[in-house]
Amino acid sequence: MLEYNIYIAVIFFLAVIALFLALVFLAMIIITIARLVLFLQELAY
To answer: Does the global pTM surpass 0.90?
Structure first.
């Protein structure tokens, strides 16, 4: 039964890391899009 709990803990830990990486990736995409929009607006003027 102890091994079963360890497996759950490992899966939960990996899920948390995956979620964190997904949030970081999403933030990078949003920042990149925002910078591109600002850059294009400067070119437009």
So the answer is: no
